[in-house]
Automatic annotation (TrEMBL):
Protein name, per record: 4-nitrophenylphosphatase
InterPro entries, per the entry: HAD-like_sf, HAD-SF_hydro_IIA, HAD_sf, PGP_euk
Cofactor: Mg(2+)
EC number(s) recorded for this UniProt protein: 3.1.3.41
Keyword Protein biosynthesis: no
Ligand binding (substrate): 220
Organism: Crucibulum laeve
Keyword Metal-binding: yes
Residues at which Mg(2+) binds: 24, 26, 245
Cofactor binding description: Divalent metal ions. Mg(2+) is the most effective.
């Protein structure tokens, strides 16, 4: 059963019990480019109390460095080494887990941030933002030459997805023996500033259906992202809390990692999913309306 936070003591106890605070981004800190009220103040409270702050986003459209630009633009203090994204997690998975040979390449369905992280990890790629692949011209195999060096397809949120990219990815995944199928994340929807949009999971779905095969997911709830954090940040899982807006990614990620979990209702999850007649089997430790509620500890109300 989740604890619904309400009194200043409830929030003060969270501050006493947890030294490391991991934040999801879309739906917790912001929706699109709309900053959620109280976020800056709450992060200031945590930093003033010497808490470790980590950002863990499934949004693969930006690299860690370009996310730093978004944080700066929205006036939210963040340092690149506090930011972990699914683009970074997929690049690390390819380099450190699959150990993709330098002679091999990746075909990308995704945007500039995913390409940046692959480049940082020394992974060669095609597709992505290449103008030749970002076309609405009909795709024909008569004009397609299979690149035998493509050993993986990585699929992330791609607002320019088209039939050419899906068709090329399909060729590699069916004709290059052992070609890995990787999804940066599988969020079904994305909470933009003005409402829900199809998420990364909806971008890889056509390939899953055409192939009859599921990808390996490197984003939340998979442990890959937490492994990336562990490789750079020393923290005690028992004194760490994960704050998220989506049950089947953020809260499950926290539970898989042995972390405490706090669900906020400013993004994807609606109250009815946790208190309704058919509640989700994924039960967060704590629930509050919005991250901004934590300001109550400063006001002592
Ligand atoms: O890929 C998606 O659907 C979105 O980027 C999704 O919102 C993940 O972002 P997060 O909530 O993990 O920051
Ligand atoms: Mg989110």
């Amino acid at each position: 059963m989740s604890v619904r936070l309400s009194s200043p003591d409830d929030y003060s106890k969270l501050l006493d019990d947890y030294d490391t605070w991991m934040f999801d981004c879309d739906g917790v800190l912001w929706r699109g480019d709309h900053l959620i009220e109280g976020v800056v103040e709450v992060l200031d409270i945590l930093r003033s109390r010497k808490k470790k702050v980590i950002f863990v986003t499934n949004n693969a459209t930006k690299s860690r460095k370009s996310y730093k630009g978004k944080f700066d633009q929205l006036g939210v203090e963040a340092h690149v080494d506090e930011i972990y994204g699914s683009a970074y997690a997929s690049a690390v998975y390819l380099s450190s887990v699959i150990k993709l040979p330098k002679s091999k390449k990746v075909y990308v369905i995704g945007m500039g941030g995913l390409e940046e992280e692959l480049r940082e990890e020394g992974i060669a790629f095609t597709g992505g933002t290449d103008p030749a692949d970002n076309t609405l011209e009909p795709f024909t195999l008569a004009n397609f030459t299979l690149d035998p060096d493509i050993a993986a397809v990585v699929c992330g949120l791609d607002t320019g997805v088209n039939y050419t990219k899906l068709s090329k990815a399909f060729q590699y995944l069916t004709r290059n023996s052992g070609c890995h199928f990787i999804a940066t994340n599988e969020d079904s929807t994305y909470p933009s500033a003005n409402g829900l949009l199809p998420g990364a999971g909806a971008i890889s779905a056509p390939l899953r259906y055409a192939l009859g095969r599921d990808p390996v997911c490197t984003g939340k709830p998979a442990s890959t992202m937490l492994d990336c954090v562990k490789a750079k940040v020393n923290f005690d899982p028992k004194r760490t809390i994960m704050i998220g807006d989506r049950l089947n990614t953020d809260i499950l990620f926290g539970q898989n990692g042995g972390l405490a979990t706090l669900l906020v209702l400013t993004g994807i999850t609606q109250e009815a999913e946790i208190t309704g007649p058919n509640p989700s089997p994924i039960v967060p430790d704590f629930v509050t309306e919005t991250l901004g509620d934590l300001r109550i500890v400063e006001r002592g109300q």
